[in-house]
Amino acid sequence: MSEDQQLRVSKITEGTVIDHVTGGQALNVLAILGIDGSGGEEVSIGMNVPSERLGRKDVVKVEGRELSQDEVDVLSLIAPAATINIVRDYDVVEKHRVERPSEVVGVLQCPNRNCITTKDEPVDSRFAVLEEGVRCAYCDTIIRESIADHIHVD
Amino acid sequence: MSEDQQLRVSKITEGTVIDHVTGGQALNVLAILGIDGSGGEEVSIGMNVPSERLGRKDVVKVEGRELSQDEVDVLSLIAPAATINIVRDYDVVEKHRVERPSEVVGVLQCPNRNCITTKDEPVDSRFAVLEEGVRCAYCDTIIRESIADHIHVD
Protein backbone atom coordinates (compact mmCIF):
# COMPACT_ATOMS: atom_id res chain seq x y z
CA MET A 1 0.00 0.00 0.00
CA SER A 2 1.45 3.35 -0.96
CA GLU A 3 2.39 5.97 1.57
CA ASP A 4 -0.56 8.08 0.49
CA GLN A 5 -2.93 5.35 1.58
CA GLN A 6 -1.48 4.74 4.97
CA LEU A 7 -0.64 7.37 7.51
CA ARG A 8 2.03 5.80 9.61
CA VAL A 9 3.27 8.19 12.22
CA SER A 10 6.91 8.12 13.12
CA LYS A 11 8.20 5.18 15.11
CA ILE A 12 8.55 5.70 18.81
CA THR A 13 12.24 6.03 19.49
CA GLU A 14 11.91 7.56 22.91
CA GLY A 15 9.15 9.34 24.72
CA THR A 16 5.79 8.68 26.25
CA VAL A 17 2.73 6.91 24.88
CA ILE A 18 -0.55 7.73 26.57
CA ASP A 19 -2.92 4.98 25.55
CA HIS A 20 -6.55 4.15 26.34
CA VAL A 21 -7.51 7.78 26.70
CA THR A 22 -11.28 8.31 26.85
CA GLY A 23 -12.43 8.79 23.25
CA GLY A 24 -12.48 12.45 22.27
CA GLN A 25 -10.28 13.67 25.11
CA ALA A 26 -6.93 13.85 23.29
CA LEU A 27 -7.07 17.62 22.83
CA ASN A 28 -7.76 18.08 26.54
CA VAL A 29 -4.79 15.83 27.27
CA LEU A 30 -2.62 18.12 25.17
CA ALA A 31 -4.01 21.18 26.95
CA ILE A 32 -3.18 19.71 30.35
CA LEU A 33 0.34 18.89 29.20
CA GLY A 34 0.79 22.37 27.78
CA ILE A 35 1.30 21.14 24.23
CA ASP A 36 -0.11 23.19 21.35
CA GLY A 37 2.46 22.55 18.64
CA SER A 38 4.31 25.82 19.05
CA GLY A 39 7.02 24.23 21.17
CA GLY A 40 8.17 22.04 18.30
CA GLU A 41 7.54 18.77 20.11
CA GLU A 42 6.88 15.81 17.85
CA VAL A 43 3.46 14.50 18.79
CA SER A 44 1.19 11.87 17.23
CA ILE A 45 -2.47 11.57 18.05
CA GLY A 46 -5.23 9.14 17.24
CA MET A 47 -8.74 10.33 18.08
CA ASN A 48 -11.74 8.06 18.36
CA VAL A 49 -9.89 5.03 17.03
CA PRO A 50 -11.40 1.60 17.63
CA SER A 51 -10.45 -0.12 20.88
CA GLU A 52 -11.31 -3.57 22.16
CA ARG A 53 -11.02 -2.36 25.72
CA LEU A 54 -12.89 0.92 25.49
CA GLY A 55 -14.88 0.73 22.28
CA ARG A 56 -13.36 4.03 21.18
CA LYS A 57 -10.17 5.55 22.46
CA ASP A 58 -7.68 8.31 21.89
CA VAL A 59 -3.91 7.81 21.89
CA VAL A 60 -1.28 10.51 22.39
CA LYS A 61 2.39 9.96 21.79
CA VAL A 62 4.98 12.58 22.73
CA GLU A 63 8.42 12.02 21.25
CA GLY A 64 11.46 12.92 23.31
CA ARG A 65 9.61 13.65 26.51
CA GLU A 66 9.10 11.42 29.53
CA LEU A 67 6.11 12.63 31.47
CA SER A 68 6.39 12.67 35.22
CA GLN A 69 3.95 10.77 37.43
CA ASP A 70 2.59 14.12 38.65
CA GLU A 71 1.89 15.24 35.10
CA VAL A 72 0.10 12.06 34.14
CA ASP A 73 -1.92 11.78 37.32
CA VAL A 74 -3.73 14.99 36.45
CA LEU A 75 -4.84 13.19 33.29
CA SER A 76 -6.77 10.76 35.48
CA LEU A 77 -9.41 13.45 35.88
CA ILE A 78 -10.37 13.19 32.21
CA ALA A 79 -8.96 9.81 31.22
CA PRO A 80 -9.10 7.46 34.21
CA ALA A 81 -8.38 4.34 32.13
CA ALA A 82 -5.28 5.79 30.50
CA THR A 83 -2.08 3.77 30.46
CA ILE A 84 1.35 5.30 30.20
CA ASN A 85 4.24 3.64 28.36
CA ILE A 86 7.68 5.16 28.69
CA VAL A 87 9.82 4.29 25.68
CA ARG A 88 13.60 4.45 25.43
CA ASP A 89 15.62 3.28 22.46
CA TYR A 90 12.54 1.72 20.82
CA ASP A 91 11.66 -0.38 23.89
CA VAL A 92 8.89 0.09 26.38
CA VAL A 93 10.81 0.40 29.66
CA GLU A 94 8.02 1.44 32.03
CA LYS A 95 4.28 1.02 32.18
CA HIS A 96 1.99 2.97 34.48
CA ARG A 97 -1.66 3.45 35.12
CA VAL A 98 -2.81 6.97 35.93
CA GLU A 99 -3.60 7.46 39.59
CA ARG A 100 -6.02 9.98 40.92
CA PRO A 101 -3.97 12.66 42.68
CA SER A 102 -4.94 14.19 46.02
CA GLU A 103 -4.88 17.69 44.55
CA VAL A 104 -4.45 19.53 41.26
CA VAL A 105 -2.52 22.78 41.10
CA GLY A 106 -2.69 25.28 38.27
CA VAL A 107 -4.47 23.23 35.60
CA LEU A 108 -8.10 24.03 36.27
CA GLN A 109 -9.82 27.38 36.54
CA CYS A 110 -12.29 27.92 39.35
CA PRO A 111 -15.81 28.65 37.97
CA ASN A 112 -16.39 31.13 40.81
CA ARG A 113 -15.62 34.53 39.34
CA ASN A 114 -15.04 35.96 42.79
CA CYS A 115 -12.50 33.37 43.78
CA ILE A 116 -9.11 34.86 44.52
CA THR A 117 -7.60 32.51 41.98
CA THR A 118 -9.63 33.94 39.09
CA LYS A 119 -8.92 37.57 39.79
CA ASP A 120 -5.64 39.08 38.73
CA GLU A 121 -3.83 37.79 41.78
CA PRO A 122 -0.67 35.75 41.33
CA VAL A 123 -2.29 32.72 42.91
CA ASP A 124 -2.37 29.33 41.19
CA SER A 125 -5.63 27.48 41.36
CA ARG A 126 -5.64 24.55 43.75
CA PHE A 127 -8.28 21.83 43.88
CA ALA A 128 -8.68 18.90 46.22
CA VAL A 129 -9.63 15.78 44.29
CA LEU A 130 -12.73 14.08 45.67
CA GLU A 131 -14.67 10.98 44.73
CA GLU A 132 -17.36 13.05 43.07
CA GLY A 133 -15.30 15.85 41.57
CA VAL A 134 -12.84 18.52 42.61
CA ARG A 135 -13.14 21.23 45.26
CA CYS A 136 -11.42 24.61 45.17
CA ALA A 137 -9.06 24.92 48.13
CA TYR A 138 -9.76 28.66 48.39
CA CYS A 139 -13.50 29.09 47.97
CA ASP A 140 -14.80 25.50 48.32
CA THR A 141 -16.60 25.57 44.97
CA ILE A 142 -17.06 22.00 43.74
CA ILE A 143 -16.87 21.01 40.07
CA ARG A 144 -18.74 17.76 39.58
CA GLU A 145 -19.21 17.55 35.83
CA SER A 146 -17.38 18.48 32.66
CA ILE A 147 -14.09 18.97 34.45
CA ALA A 148 -12.37 19.20 31.07
CA ASP A 149 -14.29 22.41 30.34
CA HIS A 150 -12.43 24.06 33.22
CA ILE A 151 -8.98 23.33 31.91
CA HIS A 152 -7.11 26.61 31.71
CA VAL A 153 -3.35 26.33 31.53
CA ASP A 154 -1.34 29.52 31.20
CA MET B 1 8.58 -4.40 16.19
CA SER B 2 5.77 -4.77 18.68
CA GLU B 3 2.70 -2.61 18.66
CA ASP B 4 3.88 -0.84 21.79
CA GLN B 5 6.92 0.40 19.95
CA GLN B 6 5.18 1.68 16.91
CA LEU B 7 2.13 3.85 16.86
CA ARG B 8 0.52 3.09 13.57
CA VAL B 9 -2.68 4.98 13.15
CA SER B 10 -5.51 3.31 11.32
CA LYS B 11 -5.23 2.89 7.58
CA ILE B 12 -6.99 5.42 5.49
CA THR B 13 -10.07 3.73 4.10
CA GLU B 14 -11.88 6.86 3.10
CA GLY B 15 -11.60 10.46 4.05
CA THR B 16 -9.28 13.40 3.70
CA VAL B 17 -5.55 13.71 4.32
CA ILE B 18 -4.25 17.24 4.85
CA ASP B 19 -0.53 17.01 4.35
CA HIS B 20 2.33 19.54 4.43
CA VAL B 21 0.65 21.66 7.05
CA THR B 22 2.95 24.30 8.53
CA GLY B 23 4.62 22.68 11.54
CA GLY B 24 2.72 23.32 14.75
CA GLN B 25 -0.54 24.36 13.08
CA ALA B 26 -2.45 21.07 13.30
CA LEU B 27 -4.56 22.17 16.26
CA ASN B 28 -5.53 25.35 14.44
CA VAL B 29 -6.48 23.22 11.43
CA LEU B 30 -8.78 21.20 13.69
CA ALA B 31 -10.26 24.39 15.13
CA ILE B 32 -11.02 25.74 11.66
CA LEU B 33 -12.66 22.45 10.69
CA GLY B 34 -14.70 22.42 13.87
CA ILE B 35 -13.17 19.18 15.12
CA ASP B 36 -12.50 18.77 18.84
CA GLY B 37 -13.09 15.05 19.30
CA SER B 38 -16.54 15.34 20.76
CA GLY B 39 -18.20 14.59 17.42
CA GLY B 40 -16.74 11.08 17.36
CA GLU B 41 -14.83 11.58 14.11
CA GLU B 42 -11.79 9.37 13.71
CA VAL B 43 -8.84 11.69 13.29
CA SER B 44 -5.09 11.09 13.17
CA ILE B 45 -2.54 13.83 13.61
CA GLY B 46 1.20 14.12 13.32
CA MET B 47 2.69 17.31 14.74
CA ASN B 48 6.18 18.58 13.93
CA VAL B 49 7.17 15.42 12.07
CA PRO B 50 10.20 15.57 9.77
CA SER B 51 9.53 16.65 6.20
CA GLU B 52 11.86 16.87 3.22
CA ARG B 53 9.75 19.57 1.69
CA LEU B 54 9.12 21.75 4.75
CA GLY B 55 11.71 20.69 7.31
CA ARG B 56 8.92 20.11 9.82
CA LYS B 57 5.29 19.56 9.05
CA ASP B 58 1.99 18.59 10.53
CA VAL B 59 -0.41 16.08 8.98
CA VAL B 60 -4.12 15.75 9.71
CA LYS B 61 -6.22 12.83 8.54
CA VAL B 62 -9.99 12.83 8.92
CA GLU B 63 -11.63 9.46 8.39
CA GLY B 64 -15.01 9.32 6.72
CA ARG B 65 -15.18 12.95 5.75
CA GLU B 66 -14.40 14.60 2.44
CA LEU B 67 -13.64 18.24 3.00
CA SER B 68 -15.05 20.71 0.54
CA GLN B 69 -12.82 23.10 -1.41
CA ASP B 70 -14.34 25.99 0.60
CA GLU B 71 -13.39 24.32 3.86
CA VAL B 72 -9.82 23.66 2.83
CA ASP B 73 -9.23 27.03 1.25
CA VAL B 74 -9.66 28.68 4.63
CA LEU B 75 -6.73 26.53 5.75
CA SER B 76 -4.55 28.42 3.27
CA LEU B 77 -4.46 31.29 5.76
CA ILE B 78 -2.44 29.22 8.23
CA ALA B 79 -1.03 26.46 6.05
CA PRO B 80 -0.42 27.79 2.54
CA ALA B 81 1.67 24.79 1.46
CA ALA B 82 -0.94 22.22 2.50
CA THR B 83 -1.94 19.50 0.09
CA ILE B 84 -5.26 17.73 0.23
CA ASN B 85 -5.70 14.06 -0.67
CA ILE B 86 -9.21 12.68 -0.94
CA VAL B 87 -9.22 8.94 -0.31
CA ARG B 88 -11.93 6.48 -1.25
CA ASP B 89 -11.69 2.72 -0.80
CA TYR B 90 -8.00 2.95 0.13
CA ASP B 91 -7.04 4.89 -2.99
CA VAL B 92 -6.18 8.53 -3.38
CA VAL B 93 -8.78 9.71 -5.89
CA GLU B 94 -8.21 13.48 -5.78
CA LYS B 95 -5.33 15.77 -4.95
CA HIS B 96 -5.66 19.49 -4.35
CA ARG B 97 -3.56 22.39 -3.22
CA VAL B 98 -5.17 24.92 -0.94
CA GLU B 99 -6.07 28.14 -2.69
CA ARG B 100 -6.34 31.47 -0.97
CA PRO B 101 -10.05 32.36 -0.88
CA SER B 102 -11.39 35.83 -1.62
CA GLU B 103 -13.13 35.99 1.73
CA VAL B 104 -13.52 34.07 4.98
CA VAL B 105 -16.88 33.88 6.73
CA GLY B 106 -17.42 32.86 10.33
CA VAL B 107 -14.00 31.40 11.18
CA LEU B 108 -12.14 34.42 12.48
CA GLN B 109 -13.09 36.86 15.21
CA CYS B 110 -12.57 40.56 14.60
CA PRO B 111 -10.11 42.03 17.15
CA ASN B 112 -12.13 45.24 17.26
CA ARG B 113 -14.34 44.90 20.34
CA ASN B 114 -16.76 47.45 18.95
CA CYS B 115 -17.25 45.66 15.66
CA ILE B 116 -20.84 44.60 15.12
CA THR B 117 -19.64 41.04 14.61
CA THR B 118 -18.17 40.78 18.11
CA LYS B 119 -21.16 42.10 19.97
CA ASP B 120 -24.10 39.82 20.64
CA GLU B 121 -25.58 40.37 17.21
CA PRO B 122 -26.37 37.36 15.02
CA VAL B 123 -23.84 38.45 12.43
CA ASP B 124 -21.12 36.13 11.19
CA SER B 125 -17.69 37.64 10.85
CA ARG B 126 -16.63 38.31 7.28
CA PHE B 127 -13.09 39.09 6.17
CA ALA B 128 -11.74 39.95 2.75
CA VAL B 129 -8.48 38.12 2.12
CA LEU B 130 -5.67 40.42 1.04
CA GLU B 131 -2.06 39.88 0.11
CA GLU B 132 -0.91 41.12 3.49
CA GLY B 133 -3.63 39.77 5.73
CA VAL B 134 -7.39 39.89 6.14
CA ARG B 135 -9.72 42.87 6.44
CA CYS B 136 -13.01 42.94 8.29
CA ALA B 137 -15.84 43.63 5.86
CA TYR B 138 -17.77 45.54 8.54
CA CYS B 139 -15.25 47.76 10.33
CA ASP B 140 -12.20 47.54 8.01
CA THR B 141 -9.87 46.34 10.78
CA ILE B 142 -6.93 44.53 9.22
CA ILE B 143 -5.25 41.51 10.80
CA ARG B 144 -1.72 41.19 9.45
CA GLU B 145 -0.06 38.80 11.86
CA SER B 146 -0.91 35.76 13.94
CA ILE B 147 -4.13 35.13 12.06
CA ALA B 148 -4.41 31.78 13.82
CA ASP B 149 -4.81 33.58 17.16
CA HIS B 150 -8.07 35.01 15.87
CA ILE B 151 -9.68 31.67 15.08
CA HIS B 152 -12.98 31.50 16.89
CA VAL B 153 -15.42 28.95 15.58
CA ASP B 154 -18.72 28.58 17.36
UniProtKB/TrEMBL annotation, chains A, B:
GO terms for cellular component: aspartate carbamoyltransferase complex. The keyword Transferase applies. It comes from the Archaea. Gene3D superfamilies: Aspartate carbamoyltransferase regulatory subunit, C-terminal domain, Aspartate carbamoyltransferase regulatory subunit, N-terminal domain. InterPro entries: Asp_carbamoyltransf_reg_N, Asp_carbamoylTrfase_reg, Asp_carbamoyltrfase_reg_C, Asp_carbatrfase_reg_C_sf, Asp_carbatrfase_reg_N_sf. Residues 7-99 form the Aspartate carbamoyltransferase regulatory subunit N-terminal domain. This is Aspartate carbamoyltransferase regulatory chain. Binds 1 zinc ion per subunit. Involved in allosteric regulation of aspartate carbamoyltransferase. It comes from Halorientalis regularis. GO terms for biological process: 'de novo' pyrimidine nucleobase biosynthetic process; pyrimidine nucleotide biosynthetic process. The gene is pyrI. Residues 103-146 form the Aspartate carbamoyltransferase regulatory subunit C-terminal domain. Its cofactor is Zn(2+). Belongs to the PyrI family. SUPFAM superfamilies: Aspartate carbamoyltransferase, Regulatory-chain, C-terminal domain (SSF57825), Aspartate carbamoyltransferase, Regulatory-chain, N-terminal domain (SSF54893). Keywords: Metal-binding, Pyrimidine biosynthesis, Transferase, Zinc. The keyword Iron-sulfur does not apply. Contains catalytic and regulatory chains. GO terms for molecular function: metal ion binding; transferase activity. Zn(2+) binds at C110, C115, C136, C139.
